[in-house]
């Protein structure tokens, strides 16, 4: 059973990491553009990052049931510190792509090798009734901290105004990211030594293997779609399409992430009334429609307005999806299930950013947004058709009463 103090430590670490991710995903494409990268090259770096995250997350998911979660969390925090330092020392695309591959800065902003480990730790002590709210609070903290981090992405503009060199202004932000990795390590260091489950399973996935693999297949479609409009590439589209400044982009991402943050408790409330799967689907489809419309916007104000509407809905499936996965597997399978269902969000999406980079250079630069929104709607309909009859325990009890 996870102690409330341990949950608080996990929430605090999520907040620290979220703050770093909030500015890193905006700074990274701006920094790469400043040192001479074109949109395709930036897409290649994004692809390397997502592919590396997927492979490392998959490995961690299969290792976690047999190893100390605290040690794995500490290793991930140290990797975060290494990532920040490494980005300040390399500019050649081969080395930058290598750092992106093994590092923790993810262009999506919501993924990472530490996420399934934190999910497994949180799920140890959450009851069926509290599980969705626990993950909603976790997601809320992560999103709010990312929103504040988005504001910090404007720091290079202020440093440049004070006379700092442009490239070094960006590099100081990577130093700050490394420092946040060390803070995360200090927080994880106060957690107890625990495994994903007290009794070691004979295999990472057992009786729920079929359900997990089917969910993973569907999540891979959602991930592939999402790769066309990950946060870093969306920022790049705003920079290129509307000549948006770094300060203006940081303010926009602050508000969009804040809207996403406050949608998490709403999602938990809605799930108790219409169910987890229905909440995932019927909030996701309108958000995809707003994304498609944003691609055709005549000016920045309309585009930003539509993207803010999208942000208010697009992440409501995050805590509900996590809660659903944790509910339909056995406790011993949770770490592996969290990893196996999270990995496609990086692995499949690793294919699309390079294509999105090419599309950004065409006459219709909004094409990646259209492709993303259309494929996400297909995913939502497939998820509804496949899983509307598979209920988590709390929904089964509610139906029986």
The gist of it:
The protein has 401 residues and is mainly alpha-helical. It contains 18 helices and no strands. The protein has helices spanning 4-34, 39-63, 69-87, 93-102, 115-123, 128-152, 155-161, 166-188, 209-226, 231-242, 246-274, 276-295, 300-314, 317-327, 334-347, 352-360, 367-387, 393-400.
What does this protein structure show overall?
The chain is an all-alpha fold and 401 residues long. It contains 18 helices and no strands. The longest helix is centred in the N-terminal third of the chain and has 31 residues, at 4-34.
Report the strand count: 0
Distance between the termini: 28 Å
Mean pLDDT: 87
Order of helices and strands: HHHHHHHHHHHHHHHHHH
- Largest sheet: number of strands, sense, barrel closure: none
The assigned CATH architecture is: Up-down Bundle
Descriptive tags:
401 residues; mainly alpha; Growth Hormone, Chain: A; 18 helices
Could you give the topology of this structure?
Elements: H1 4-34, H2 39-63, H3 69-87, H4 93-102, H5 115-123, H6 128-152, H7 155-161, H8 166-188, H9 209-226, H10 231-242, H11 246-274, H12 276-295, H13 300-314, H14 317-327, H15 334-347, H16 352-360, H17 367-387, H18 393-400
Helix pairs in contact: 1-6, 1-8, 1-10, 1-11, 2-4, 2-15, 2-16, 3-4, 3-8, 5-15, 6-11, 6-14, 7-8, 9-15, 9-17, 11-12, 11-13, 11-14, 12-13, 12-14, 12-17
């Amino acid at each position: 059973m996870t102690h409330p103090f341990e949950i608080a430590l996990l929430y605090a670490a999520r907040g620290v990491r979220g703050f770093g991710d909030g500015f890193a995903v905006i700074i990274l494409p701006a920094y790469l553009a400043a040192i001479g990268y074109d949109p395709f090259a930036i897409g290649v770096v994004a692809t390397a990052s997502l592919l590396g995250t997927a492979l490392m997350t998959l490995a961690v998911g299969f290792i976690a049931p047999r190893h100390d979660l605290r040690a794995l969390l500490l290793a991930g925090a140290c990797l975060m510190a290494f990532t920040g330092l490494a980005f300040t020392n390399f500019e050649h695309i081969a080395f930058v792509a290598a750092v992106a591959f093994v590092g923790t800065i993810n262009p999506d902003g919501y993924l990472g090798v530490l996420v399934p480990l934190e999910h497994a730790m949180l799920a140890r002590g959450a009851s069926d009734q509290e599980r969705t709210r626990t993950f909603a609070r976790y997601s809320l903290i992560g999103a709010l901290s990312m929103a504040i981090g988005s504001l910090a992405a404007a720091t290079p503009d202020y440093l440049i105004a004070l006379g700092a060199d442009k490239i070094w202004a960006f590099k100081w932000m990577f130093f700050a990211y490394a420092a946040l990795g060390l803070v995360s390590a200090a927080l994880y260091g106060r957690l107890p030594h625990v495994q994903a489950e007290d009794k070691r399973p004979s295999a990472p996935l057992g009786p729920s293997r079929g359900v997990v693999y089917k969910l993973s297949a569907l999540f891979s479609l959602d991930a592939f779609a999402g790769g066309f409009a990950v946060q870093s590439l969306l920022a790049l589209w705003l920079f290129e399409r509307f000549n948006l400044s770094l300060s203006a982009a940081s303010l926009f991402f602050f508000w969009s992430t804040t809207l996403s943050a406050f949608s998490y408790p709403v999602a938990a409330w809605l799930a108790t009334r219409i169910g987890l799967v229905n909440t995932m689907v019927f909030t996701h489809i309108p958000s995809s429609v707003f994304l498609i419309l944003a691609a055709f916007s005549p000016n920045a104000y309309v585009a930003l307005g539509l993207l803010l509407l999208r942000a208010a809905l697009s992440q409501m499936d995050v805590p509900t999806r996590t809660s659903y996965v944790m509910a339909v597997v056995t406790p011993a399978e949770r770490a592996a299930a969290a990893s196996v269902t999270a990995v496609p969000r990086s692995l499949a999406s690793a294919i699309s950013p390079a294509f999105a980079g090419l599309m950004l250079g065409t006459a219709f630069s909004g094409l990646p947004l259209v492709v993303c929104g259309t494929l996400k709607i297909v995913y939502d309909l497939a998820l509804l058709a496949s899983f509307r009859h598979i209920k988590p325990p709390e929904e089964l009890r509610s139906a029986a009463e």
